[in-house]
User: Fold these one by one.
Assistant:
Number 1:
Amino acid sequence: MKDSDHKAGAILEAALPVFVRHGFRKTSMADIARAAGISRAALYLSFGSKEELFRAGSERAHAKTMRSVEAALAGDGDVFSRIELAIAAFQRDLIVPFAGSADAAELFDANMTLAKDITLAARARLVALLAGALADAQARNAITLDALKASPTDLAGIIVAAMEGIKEAQAAGQNLLEDTQLFLRLLRLALTRSSQGA
């Protein structure tokens, strides 16, 4: 890893809690420089603006998260356990850090404004990875989707859409972890029953 990459990574690590504490609008480059233990001038050598820094942080977080998702889906256990681990990694790395912020909605909006392409690419990759895991399980007769009249890609899209809905419901006081686990238990029950009925 180049020294400049290491420095940029350290700045992005320091910036995350600042954005969580103050929100996007109220966070200044001076706040981030202070948290990173560098001068504003040194910060501007790495990132030309707060927007550029935020986008770089989003890109870094999504790349790291997708590596964790891939590892979870390639691991041991039945398809449901692996999907649960993959979704947990996705939420832990991309949703949970901002969800506790008083400015969570603003931070998620800033992400969609500044890094929409990154976010949508990661979402599409997540759907593809889940669909691959489901297709593999179906090919091994571990599950069947026949009774649901759905393809692995259809079901993967529904899983990701449900995760997004659960994230939005969190603003209304719902519990992200508990609601996600409930949804995944429902998924396991539906696919296990349709497999047994086949």
Note: Residues 58-197 form one domain.
Number 2:
Amino acid sequence: MTSPSSSRDRVLGRVRRALADVPEAPEVARDYLVSHTPDDPAGVLDLLHDNLVDYRAGVHRSTRQGLPALVGRLLAERGARTVVVPPGLPGAWLAGSDARQRFDDVPLTPAELDSTDAVVTGCALAVAETGTVVLDAGPGQGRRALTLIPDLHVCVVEAPGQVVASLPQALPRLDPTRPMTWISGPSATSDIELDRVEGVHGPRTLEVVLVVD
């Protein structure tokens, strides 16, 4: 009986012989646009804002000085009594909140995360043309479970430094070896009749804060 490896080698050999006289593929032109958005930081930020809203995220703008009060208000309005604090999150961000803080320096258990109302994180980047926030488990973001289990995710984006117009601009700034999470709005799915249900695979509510100074 012929072994699978020898059969495979025979088939691949036939393919190579059949392609022996085929000319090499031409060079692919790479002169396409890396962005369809004018190079204007204010316009890029407005586009990000609009696309986040289209994905049903709450979007807010704040100064750095006003950030703690805004984060505290968002947590209070959603009734968050407990909040996960990822390692490296600036302590000042939660200075305006009365929610009980649960630190993940020693990883919280799935049950502890499930019983926590909210999480506050930073991000690695935000992509304006797609309305996407990218997390890569860096300081202030934490491991992926932190942003998948609590029902409310408040994500802080610092503009303009963390905002890019397009995916081609984002990818060179991201480390492909890091565990990345790409978030476009709150978690949602639809059944065959297109009835939308939110909070199935992650947070039911996404609040994005654009810090603009």
Note: The first strand starts at residue 58 and ends at 62.
